[in-house]
Automatic annotation (TrEMBL):
GO terms for biological process: proteolysis. One of its GO terms (molecular function) is metal ion binding. InterPro entries: Creatin/AminoP/Spt16_N, Creatinase/aminopeptidase-like, Creatinase_N, Pept_M24, Peptidase_M24B, Peptidase_M24B_aminopep-P_CS. Residues 21-149 form the Creatinase N-terminal domain. Belongs to the peptidase M24B family. It comes from the Bacteria. Pfam families: Creatinase_N, Peptidase_M24. Keywords: Aminopeptidase, Hydrolase, Metal-binding, Metalloprotease, Protease. Residues 158-365 form the Peptidase M24 domain. The keyword Hydrolase applies. This is Aminopeptidase P family protein.
Length: 390
């Protein structure tokens, strides 16, 4: 299955799967009375067509109707679009002096509503308002989000492989840490290891925090050096065929203080409680509530107060590292087969330290299943992690 161009034991997303996605989208369009969906240069464009394009001030995307897939592109970009591995479709182009929103209007016709990609920039929305009128526009997110939220076996396999790579990178990073090493050195090493294991873009992101910087959920500025007795927090991930990994480990090279060990144990208990609450039909907010109940039972919080959990328990993940639905109060989405979430009820002790253990799970017909096994030990975090093999 693996080859020099794709060195992984799981396949990328096939054209057949993208065709099936378009069929489901068209069914949603028909039910909602929508004549066309306009996708911008977003992850939804990649999801349905395979076209990956960096967004800019020029409209480039795709118009999907009940019968046609039409790529919309600046005229000078047509030759590049034609060379990319995308679903077959027509290509409609516009010159620099022309109005791309009027082009979409003319392709759509004089009747029917157009649903716009929810991640289109505001200037594009205004362009479509001027071309079609606000009454003919709708939110494509209502059609697209339910489809993207429930991952297929192929999507889950890609994320499982990406996460297996990242946990191996974590294991290797832990082995090279020593007092005096700088955060930037850890970040560079992790990027190199992601690439060595077949993630073509290296690390999609990386946070390596030491000591009191671990109390900042997304890391501190500067380039500190690791000191003896520091708590270490490393959060990183990569992408395979667009699908994300995102794993955090918090550990020490030295003996922890009693307070660090206490908070680490509470955070692990909260993570376990969230996982136990994730069953089919449960709401996203109930999973968040389960984690917070553990934290509050230990005298932390309540709510978002510190010391405690300052943010949601988890987020959806897929082609975007943060996707809806979220494990957070107010999200009443019911968990369903194929949904994928992070589980990371971080505990922050302001100005001192923070603990985040982040793993991800996906919903099956029989309930939640971990992508990666949670961290078992504060001092020996990877003793139960076997080296990655093909």
């Amino acid at each position: 299955m693996a080859d020099a161009m794709w060195p992984h034991p799981v396949p990328p997303i096939s054209s057949e799967e993208r065709d099936a996605r378009l069929a489901r989208l068209r069914a949603n369009m028909d039910e909602s009375g929508i004549k066309g969906v306009l996708l911008g240069s977003t992850e939804s464009l990649r999801y349905f067509t395979g076209l990956v394009w960096k967004p800019s001030e020029r409209l480039l995307g795709a118009l999907i109707t009940d019968e046609r897939l039409v790529y919309i592109a600046p005229r000078f970009e047509r030759s590049k679009v034609e060379t990319l591995p995308i679903l077959p479709g027509d290509i409609a182009t516009w010159e620099e002096h022309e109005n791309p929103y009027a082009l979409v209007r003319d392709l759509l016709g004089s009747r029917g509503r157009l649903a716009l990609d929810e991640q289109l920039p505001l200037f594009a929305y205004h362009g479509f308002v001027a071309a079609l009128g606000v009454d003919r526009l709708a939110d494509a997110g209502l059609l697209v989000r339910p489809l993207r939220a429930r991952k297929s076996p192929a999507e889950i396999a890609l994320m499982a492989r990406a996460k297996a790579i990242t946990i191996e990178v974590h294991r290797r990073a832990h082995a090279m840490l020593k007092p005096g090493i700088r955060s930037s050195e850890v970040v560079a090493f992790i990027d190199t290891q992601h690439r060595a294991l077949g993630a073509p873009g290296g690390s999609n992101f990386c946070i390596a925090s030491f000591g009191d910087a671990t109390s900042l959920p997304h890391g501190a500025d500067g380039d500190p050096a690791l000191q003896r007795g520091d708590l270490i927090l490393v959060d990183t991930g990569c992408r395979l065929d667009g699908y994300h990994s995102d794993i955090t480990r918090t550990y020490m090279l030295d003996e922890p203080t009693r307070e660090i060990e206490r908070i680490w144990t509470i955070q692990k208990e909260a993570q376990e409680a969230a996982f136990a609450a994730a069953h089919l039909g449960a709401t996203c907010e109930s999973v968040d509530r389960a984690a917070r109940s553990v934290i509050e039972a230990h005298g932390l919080g309540p709510d978002y107060r510190l010391p405690g959990l300052p943010h949601r328990t988890g987020h959806g993940i897929g082609l975007e590292i943060h996707e809806v639905p979220n494990l957070v109060r107010g999200d009443e989405t019911e968990l369903a087969t194929g949904m994928c979430f992070s589980n990371e009820p971080m505990i922050v002790v302001p100005g001192q330290f923070g603990v985040r253990l982040e793993d991800h799970f996906y919903m099956t017909d029989s309930g939640a299943r971990w992508f990666t096994q949670p961290q078992a030990s504060l001092i020996d975090p990877f003793s139960d992690v076997a080296p990655l093999t093909e």
